[in-house]
Structures are given as C-alpha cells and as structure tokens.
C-alpha cells in the first residue's frame, strides 16, 4: 500500500506538491496530498505518515493515527512545539536556508539607515544638490540576539563590513565572527552596548521580553526578524517616540499587522510584512527530499526540533 505525504500550505500547497512529485522517484511509493484548508487536511490527516507543512491546524494532529514525522517548511516552529503530538512523532524544521536572505534584508536596512537613503531619494525628488555626510557601518557595533545559523550568517557579513560583532546566546562558548558573546543574564549590557540590535530570537518563553528596547542606546537601530512576540510592542513604541531608537520590524505579535496599528505611521519605524526569510518552495522541497532519504534509511534527520527547548 502506498504511503501518504500530506502537504499543507494555505497559499501554495500545489506548488510544493508539484515540485515534490517531480523530485520523488515513482518507485518511492508515496501518495502526495496537497491541502490548502483545514477541511482538506481533515480528510487526509488520518492516512498521513508524513506531514510537510506551514501553519498546519494543529488540533488535527489528534486524528493523525499513522503519523511518524512532521517537517516544517520554515524555521520557526512555535506552533508545532505545543501541538498535541506524541513524543514518537519526529518534528523537523528548516535549518540553513535563511541565513543569506535574512542577512541581506538586515544589511539592506542597516545600510539604508547609515547612508540615509530616504534623504538621498527625497533630495533627488526635489532636484536638490546638497551633499551631506552619511554614516558608516564600519566601526559600528552589531548585536545579534540569537546566533544560530541565521545569526551567524549575519555575523560573517558584519565582520566583512568592518563592524564589531556581539552575540547573545543561551549557552556560552566561541562563535565564528562573534567578537564577544553574552548570555541571557548579561542581556542588559548587550542591549545597551550595541548600535544595531538584530533579533533572530524564536518565540519561546525564555525569549519573550528578553530584549528591552528602552534599554538601547541613544540613536541605535532595532531590527526584529525573529518573532513579534519576543519584544514588547508598547516598549518599542515608547522607545521610538522618545526619539531614542529607530526600529525596522518584519515580525509582529499579530500578523497581518492590523491596518490601525500605530506602527504603520510612526516616522521612525519601518514596517515590512514578514518577508525577510520567505521560504522558496524549490529549496524547501529539496531540503525535505534529502531528509526523506535519511528517514527512509533510518538515519538521523537534519533540523530535528527539541520540543522542550522550543526550536
Ligand atoms: C520562518 C519564517 O520561521 O518565515 O521560516 O518566519
């Protein structure tokens, strides 16, 4: 009997399923069920041995009697770690695909800030010839909260730009390209000491509220590409409105960000719609297929989630 892979993605299940069908040899004996809604997933979940998903309606796991493995299509798995899944079901996430795009997002915004790109564009619009001195990343201090594979990709680029790089991590130890590593008990010194604070933190109880934007230094820039729930949004507003910091926010407590949210119109906040590390279906499918090979051979999978740790 063929085995079922349920592919769940509200926006693009068939894109993922088509790519998967192309990469899986027909001899592999899998049936692929693309689902874009809870109703479709409810019909297939009882048969599924593997679920490859993004934002799966997790209560349906209760009906997943044959389930052995859940592969997330992204890096963050805050929904899966609290889902009703027996310990015998493996959960994996994508590790190693987001460092490049998320670093490019972060550096685009840091350079735009240092170079005052908005002012450059505004001067062109006004046909105004008025040279002004831009800032520099070189010599500035970059603080990266969360130095997993994504944070480390940012650290390498920070060094290439001549920045001093600080990191914040759960556990001490050396990290490549990180000049100084702080642990959570030293978070205030980390927060107060950096010019650019980039958070890649996952949404776990330990990370929520760890970074206090009001403790950042005057003129610093906060960039959140991790999860909105980790930094108090009222505190961000207060820090920005006091003129202390500028914020670039790609993630929010509530997504989509409601149209009447004050962040939209705050002059010193840049809002983007959670796009810094969008999953490219072809890359995620390739990652999944490589893991599927390991799964078939009984080898350890890549990106295994520690549900107690939360990622
Ligand atoms: C992810 C994300 O976790 O897109 O992959 O935020």
Automatic annotation (TrEMBL):
The keyword Signal belongs to this UniProt entry's keyword annotation: no
Keyword Oxidoreductase appears in the UniProt entry: yes
Chain segments annotated as transmembrane: none
UniProt GO molecular function: glyoxylate reductase (NADPH) activity; hydroxypyruvate reductase [NAD(P)H] activity
E.C. numbers: 1.1.1.79, 1.1.1.81
Pfam families to which the protein is assigned, alphabetical: 2-Hacid_dh_C
Domain D-isomer specific 2-hydroxyacid dehydrogenase NAD-binding: 107-276
Alphabetically ordered keywords of this record: NAD, Oxidoreductase
Entry protein name: Glyoxylate/hydroxypyruvate reductase A
Organism: Symbiobacterium terraclitae
Lineage: Bacteria, Bacillati, Bacillota, Clostridia, Eubacteriales
């Amino acid at each position: 009997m063929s085995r079922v892979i349920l592919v769940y993605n509200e926006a693009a299940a068939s894109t993922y399923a088509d790519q998967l069908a192309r990469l899986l040899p027909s001899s592999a004996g899998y049936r692929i069920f693309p689902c874009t809604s809870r109703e479709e997933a409810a019909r297939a979940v009882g048969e599924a041995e593997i679920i490859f998903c993004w934002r799966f309606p997790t209560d349906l796991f209760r009906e997943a009697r044959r389930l052995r493995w859940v592969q997330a299509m992204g890096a963050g798995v805050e929904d899966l770690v609290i889902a009703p899944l027996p310990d015998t079901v493996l959960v994996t996430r994508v590790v190693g695909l987001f460092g490049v795009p998320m670093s490019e997002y972060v550096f685009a915004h840091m350079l735009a800030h240092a170079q005052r790109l908005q002012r450059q564009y505004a001067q062109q619009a006004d046909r105004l010839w008025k040279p002004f001195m831009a800032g520099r990343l070189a010599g500035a201090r970059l603080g990266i909260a969360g130095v997993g594979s994504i944070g480390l990709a940012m650290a390498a680029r920070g060094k290439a730009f001549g920045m001093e790089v600080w990191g914040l991590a759960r556990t001490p130890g050396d990290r490549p390209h990180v000049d100084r590593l702080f642990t959570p008990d030293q978070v205030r010194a980390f927060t107060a000491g950096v010019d650019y604070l980039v958070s890649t933190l996952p949404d776990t109880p330990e990370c929520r509220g760890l970074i206090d934007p009001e403790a950042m230094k005057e003129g610093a820039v906060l960039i959140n590409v991790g999860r909105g729930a980790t930094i108090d949004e009222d505190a961000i507003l207060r820090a920005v409105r006091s003129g202390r910091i500028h914020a670039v926010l790609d993630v929010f407590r509530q997504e989509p960000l409601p149209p009447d949210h004050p962040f939209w119109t705050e002059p010193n906040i840049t809002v983007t719609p959670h796009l810094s590390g969008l999953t490219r279906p072809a890359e995620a499918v390739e990652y999944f297929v490589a893991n599927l090979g390991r799964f078939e051979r009984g080898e350890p999978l890549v990106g295994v989630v520690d549900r107690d740790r939360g990622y």
